[in-house]
Amino acid sequence: MANLKGKLGWLLLISVGLAFPWLAGNDYYLTVMSTAYIFAIATIGLNLITGYTGQLNLAHSGFMAVGAYTVGILTVDYHFTFWAAFALSGVVAAALGFFIGLVSLRLKGHYFSIFTLCVGYIMFLVIEKWDGLTHGTVGILGIPAPEAIGSITFTTPLALYYLVFFWLVVGMWAMRRIVNSLLGRTFIAIRNGDELAESLGINLMRNKVLAFMLSVFYAGMAGGLYAGFVRFIGPSIAGVEHTFDMTMYMLVGGLGTLIGPLLGALTVPWLTQYLQFLQEYRFIVFGPILVLLVIFVPNGIVGSYLAWRTRRTDLKGKNA
Fold first, then answer.
1. Which of 63, 108, 111, 251 has its CA 20 to 30 A from that of 144?
2. Does domain 2-319 have CATH number 1.10.3470?
3. C-alpha distances in angstroms, 198 versus 32, 53, 185?
């Protein structure tokens, strides 16, 4: 019964996503939602290493930039098709993540986070200063739109919206398979404690590196989509503030839950949009709201709901 309800819930979410363009009414809202979807994909990846494996990677936006620049450099400078470059965006990010993970994941807790913060800043500086490869502070202009697939073209905001939505659905489906598998339970065991995981025969380094690579693969893929959607990229995409934004999305939605990061990544940007009439003062309102959420809903929206449902089920079991 619970499995049926879960499937109905996912079908409802997909239906809302498919119907959104007809509810939005204009291209601006489509653009806002498409951008939110792209960052939702990256946030889902960050949640795998942070929420499920217990390692806060503060270089996540740097890996998103790696995916974006992979598409930008290959299409503009080497005349790859968008699809060929996009196919490599996540792979290049994951390959880089393998080597960074081997070094960084020997550290634990705050030391790991501080190390990845430094790595993220180094990635930002490389992008900003390496003019010959990344075009430096000018950025990469004229990134081509995704090529048509048969009669389907991607030259309008509506078509790009459905393209990004498709990859969000694929990403969520794949992540659901991962976290519900034996591999996902292995990641959770590592989050609960290294000693516990080792006592169960889990190879800590191998599984941490694998979680890290899968996480940054999502970031790279999101970056590749971002490059094809915006068609211009600059060093700012590697800024650590984007990682903090994604961390906020996880905290608001529910860290270590499947739907929570998605919910946070979709609701927070819209909240900031509705507060734009306050201009630079909007964060005076937005900041306290986030503080109150963290204080009174520490497990996030979805995490708090799941905890409430568990308590309710236990109470029913005792009264039966």
1. 63
2. yes
3. 44, 14, 14
